[in-house]
Amino acid sequence: MERAAVVSSRRSPSVPECNISTSTLAFDQHFTTTAKGILLLAEIVFGMLVWILVGGTEYFHLSALCWVMFVSILCWVLTVCLFLIYLTGTHNRIPQVPWTTLSLCLNCSAAAVYLVTAAVDAHSVNQAVRGRHNYNCWAASTFFAFLTTLCYAGSSYLSYWAWKTTQEQ
């Protein structure tokens, strides 16, 4: 029994202990009330409606609607990630990343691609029989695709002004 006490008292960590504190993600409640936060939320909701409305139909028979699904889901995932980055304040904790430039590039490219996608979606509505399930869903998805395009255009405008003011400093 004495030996066990001696052995346990001799054990000391060979590596000094580091004081590693764990932090929880911060939540910026003010961000959701800003114009940028509201536009990001609108992009998420409208973009989700686009891919849900198209995904609930037999879209895979038209390759144009496969493009609509690809763009809407890709932009939706990227927008959700960007929203979470701004909501949790990660953009303040990682200053090495040029967040204003990244946001500008994402929003401008999403606005351009979504405009083409909305036009393709609108053209594809003619492939369905009026009054049927596919027609109604594709027409509604076209409406929300154009709304999403407007939201991305608004976010592009805000991102441009944020980028411009950052460049002037």
TrEMBL record:
GO terms for molecular function: structural constituent of myelin sheath. Its main location: membrane. Keywords: Membrane, Transmembrane, Transmembrane helix. InterPro entries: MAL, Marvel, MARVEL-CKLF_proteins. It comes from the Eukaryota. It is found in: Membrane. It holds the Pfam family MARVEL. Residues 31-164 form the MARVEL domain. GO terms for biological process: myelination. GO terms for cellular component: membrane. The chain crosses the membrane at residues 37-54, 60-87, 99-120, 140-163. It is a multi-pass membrane protein. PANTHER family: CKLF-LIKE MARVEL TRANSMEMBRANE DOMAIN-CONTAINING PROTEIN 8, MARVEL-CONTAINING POTENTIAL LIPID RAFT-ASSOCIATED PROTEIN. This is MARVEL domain-containing protein.
